[in-house]
Design a protein that fits this description.
CATH topology of the largest domain: Alpha-Beta Plaits
Structural class: alpha+beta
Order of helices and strands: HHHHHHHEHHEEHEEEHE
Strand content: 5-15%
Mean pLDDT: 78
Helix content: 55-70%
Strand order of the largest sheet: 2-3-1-6-7
CATH superfamily of the largest domain: Reverse transcriptase/Diguanylate cyclase domain
Oligomer: single chain
Distance between the termini: 47 Å
Shape: elongated
CATH architecture of the largest domain: 2-Layer Sandwich
Length: 345
């Protein structure tokens, strides 16, 4: 946005740009496009999850490695940037074509206007019948040409309108893909973090305090070690479906990482949150997961999940809620797994 329209935003951006490179140089971090993107995002303080991870890296004695920088970029920026850049590129091409056609139209109609102006000027003088017929022919030819060209331009604009609608659809799909986990079809961690960042506003709007459930598949490493990672992926997909079937409405289910899922319940009373948590645990434990035939295993797998839950407290940071739910999840695992535990009050 131009500086004259939003000086505060502009000045903030300039400050970030000026401070990023010196900080990177001071820490001996290579100034590559991906590294710079991570630092710009970190210094802009717009991504709390990235900020927390970077703060943890900066607080230790060891330097930040290139591998760690790449991991931050992969987790927080790469997928989103690639999707958005693709959509922006497609949209840019359509806009360029549209501007080209508009330019052609302006040039043509300018010529048409000039032609009629000359005819009008000639009519203001004394003219013979022969000259008058010539001027009429000239005006008619210019008018017909303009009408024909107008029909052609109308068709071109119509085609471009259809193409822009297609680009809009692609942009919407790419934005949705950027917020989805490819394996399970659930929201990904980015989408969960965006919802979490808006939790304070949601809490003011809802009639009940939002509730967070963290759900972890018990002994998932054994599945991968015994049956292979393809079987593990199948189990993840099956458990994701079972969790999703237990929630409704505005509730959000996301793959939080690895074999862990997050369920954010909004506008659900305390007893309702407890019922959802127990329903998730039971649905998974009572189900038997049948592996695809091509994997060569005939038996069905029985898996369980451990659940930890917590309720949002007024004015607390989203990360504090996550930490409390995580401690409750740890308690479920310590107490034998396949259990639901809640934060200490």
């Amino acid at each position: 946005m131009p500086k004259t329209n939003n000086p505060t935003s502009y000045d903030r951006t300039v400050d970030i740009v000026r401070s990023a490179i010196p900080r990177m140089s001071e820490l001996k971090i290579p100034i590559t496009p991906s590294n710079y993107a991570v630092w710009y995002e970190y210094l802009s303080d717009s991504n709390e999850a990235l900020r927390l991870e970077m703060d943890a890296l900066l607080s230790r004695d060891a330097p930040i490695t290139e591998t760690e920088m790449r991991a931050l970029y992969d987790r927080f920026l790469e997928e989103r940037n690639e999707k958005v850049q693709f959509a922006k590129s497609a949209l840019s091409k359509v806009v360029s074509a549209l501007m080209s056609h508009i330019s052609q139209a302006d040039g043509h109609y300018s010529s048409f206007s000039s032609e009629l102006t000359e005819v009008a000027e000639s009519l203001s003088n004394d003219v013979t019948a022969e000259n008058l017929n010539s001027l009429i022919d000239r005006a008619m030819r210019a008018t017909n040409t303009a009408l024909e060209r107008g029909a052609e331009l109308k068709q071109q604009f119509s085609s471009l309108a259809v193409e822009m609608q297609q680009v809009r659809g692609e942009l919407a799909r790419s934005q949705e893909e950027a917020r989805s986990d490819a394996l399970t079809g659930l929201h990904n961690r980015l989408a969960f973090q965006e919802e979490l960042d808006n939790l304070a506003q949601a809490a003011r709007e809802d009639s009940h305090a939002p509730c967070l459930l963290l759900v972890d598949i018990d002994f998932f490493k054994r599945v991968n070690d015994t049956y292979g990672h393809l079987a593990g992926d199948h189990v993840l997909h099956a458990v994701a479906r079972q969790i999703k079937s237990a929630v409704r409405g505005r509730d959000l289910v996301a793959r939080y990482g690895g074999e862990e899922f997050a369920v954010l319940l909004r506008d659900t009373p305390r007893s309702g949150c407890q019922a959802v948590a127990e329903n998730v645990r039971q649905q998974v434990s009572y189900s038997k997961i049948e592996l695809p035939e091509e994997l060569g295993f005939e038996q069905k797998l029985a898996v369980t999940v451990s659940v930890g839950g917590g309720w949002y407290r007024d004015q607390e940071s989203p990360q504090t809620l996550v930490d409390r739910a995580d401690r409750a999840l740890y308690q479920s695992k310590e107490n034998g797994r396949n259990k639901v535990s809640w934060e200490s009050r």
